[in-house]
Design a protein that fits this description.
Structural class: alpha/beta
Distance between the termini: 64 Å
Strand order of the largest sheet: 3-2-1-4-5-6
Number of helices: 18
InterPro entries: 6-PGluconate_DH-like_C_sf, NAD(P)-bd_dom_sf, UDP-Glc/GDP-Man, UDP-Glc/GDP-Man_DH_C, UDP-Glc/GDP-Man_DH_C_sf, UDP-Glc/GDP-Man_DH_dimer, UDP-Glc/GDP-Man_DH_N, UDPglc_DH_bac
Keywords: NAD, Oxidoreductase
Bound molecules: nicotinamide-adenine-dinucleotide
Strand content: 5-15%
Helix content: 40-55%
Number of strands: 14
Domain UDP-glucose/GDP-mannose dehydrogenase C-terminal: 317-420
Protein name: UDP-glucose 6-dehydrogenase
Radius of gyration: 23 Å
Largest sheet: 6 strands, parallel
Enzyme class: oxidoreductase
CATH superfamily of the largest domain: NAD(P)-binding Rossmann-like Domain
Length: 439
């Protein structure tokens, strides 16, 4: 099977590499020439555990190619995945579909023989139909179907998630298209992965509904955390008790600074728009969006309060800039809001992140924060330390050594990664999430 994947971002590159690992011949297309050249040399554009290995191995085995030439790749393909970005449109809540529609236009003139175009990007309900209209308008003689196959991988564990997903969702209107989709995913189906077959609208909806539900679960426990702080309960214990209930489950019940990343914020916003446009407002999701925005702002206030009401002229060490560990992705990370606000309020911000520092600095600018190579250097001379991302090695920092490097002893642990007793024993004024103050 010959497959083209349009877009070599987190989803396109991982999907392309994994599909080649599963036996297909895959050509990954991107507009970015530099990215394509580097990929040919085995240089990864993103940090994703295990990715480099399968990219390099399959490229050397002749099963995975990279090009900027959409036409040549599409012409020889049985299936073409569209895996380009669908960011939030400028100043609006809905998804910017220009990359998807641009990719569809680029594919259309080059289709040869029956081809299935598969939307892998997260797209509003009705997009498969719209993509089909675009292709038909560009190339009325093309023999094709458009299907939907949303991607559920998580950054940081993307390769494992693609190869061992909880489910694969295949949305197609014709048996011919579904047969091609089944062939692509047969290696996974044979390992027992549940494969859900449905129409494209259902597949498109399943992706937004899943992400919105997970965002709601995070927001729920964050609000419970606020209440715990006021009532003497401990959110970590509450979450554990809740999670043991099989109807609830333990995942996504970790209180923190609010959800972020390249998916949940934009997907909840887009889902709310889809609801309103279809005359079926998603009140719950709308409330989740508002609560999460509010939370990110309030996290900064937490630091200010812990610093005695003002951060002006104070040095704040921010540990973690990515929206979660094991990724270099900082898109919509709560840390960006926190750093920018602290800077606006006159703080000197020092920040450390093992993978995302460069990307973060490109967003908030060189003036907003000084980037440090490691956590102890970041904390040196700081009046307060804020833990924003729960990178594994932050959990095992030597608090005694940390206490010796800081100037002030304030810690705001937004991920509850440190032991309160140990922090207090080392002289820290320790603030955490969802736990009553301890003295
Ligand atoms: P990304 O921004 O990392 O990558 C998109 C890539 O597409 C870029 O390299 C860009 O140069 C390329 N591109 C854009 N237009 C193109 C064109 N016409 N031809 C060739 N290349 C083109 O995006 P991403 O994070 O991989 O997300 C892609 C889609 O998958 C989005 O809809 C997203 O919501 C969805 N998704 C993302 C994740 C995730 O964790 N990142 C998970 C599941 C689903």
């Amino acid at each position: 099977m010959n497959i083209t994947v349009i877009g070599t971002g987190y989803v396109g590159l991982v999907s392309g590499a994994c599909l080649s690992e599963l036996g297909a011949h895959v050509t990954c297309v991107d507009l970015d020439e530099g990215k394509v050249e580097r990929l040919k040399q085995g240089i990864m554009p993103i940090y994703e555990p295990g990715l480099e290995d399968i990219v390099v191995t399959n490229h050397e085995a002749g099963k995975l190619d990279f090009t900027t030439d959409t036409g040549a790749a599409v012409a020889k393909s049985d299936a073409v995945f569209i895996a380009v970005g669908t960011p939030q449109a400028d100043g609006q809540a809905e998804a910017d579909m220009s990359y998807v529609y641009g990719a569809a236009k680029g594919i259309a003139p080059h289709l040869k023989g029956y081809t299935v175009i598969i939307d892998k990007s997260t797209v509003p309900v009705g997009t498969a139909r719209r993509v089909a209209e675009i292709i038909r308008a560009e190339n009325p003689n093309a023999d094709f179907d458009v299907a939907s196959n949303p991607e559920f991988l998580r950054e940081g564990s993307a390769v494992g998630d693609f190869m061992r997903p909880d489910r694969v969702v295949l949305g197609a209107d014709t048996e011919r298209a579904m047969t091609v989709l089944r062939r692509i995913y047969r290696p996974l189906a044979l390992t027992g992965v549940p494969v859900e077959e449905c129409n494209p609208e259902t597949a498109e909806m399943a992706k937004y509904a899943s992400n919105s539900f997970l965002a709601a679960k995070i927001t729920f426990i964050n609000q419970v955390a606020d209440l715990c702080e006021k009532s003497g309960a401990d959110v970590e214990d509450v979450a554990r008790s809740m999670g043991l209930d099989k109807r609830i489950g333990p995942m996504f019940l970790k209180a923190g600074p609010g959800y972020g990343g390249s998916c949940f914020p934009k997907d909840t916003n887009a889902f709310a728009v889809i609801g309103r446009r279809n005359g079926s407002p998603q009140h719950l999701v709308e409330a989740v969006i508002t609560a999460n925005e509010d939370r990110k702002r309030r996290m900064c206030e937490r630091i200010v309060e812990a610093c005695g009401g003002s951060v002006e002229g104070k040095t704040i060490a921010v540990l973690g800039l990515t929206f979660k560990p094991d990724t270099d992705d900082v898109r919509d990370s709560p840390a960006l809001t926190i750093v920018s606000k602290l800077h606006e309020m006159g703080a000197r911000v020092k920040a450390h992140d093992p993978m995302g520092a460069e990307h973060a600095q490109a967003i908030f600018g060189k003036q907003a924060a000084e980037i440090c190579d490691e956590p102890y250097a970041c904390a040196t001379g700081a009046d307060a330390v804020a833990v924003v991302t729960d990178w594994a090695h932050f959990k095992t920092l030597d608090l005694k050594r940390l206490a010796a490097t800081v100037r002030g002893k304030v810690v705001v642990d937004m991920r509850n990664i440190w032991d309160a007793d140990e922090a207090i024993a080392n002289g820290f004024d320790y603030h955490c999430i969802g736990r009553a103050p301890r003295f």
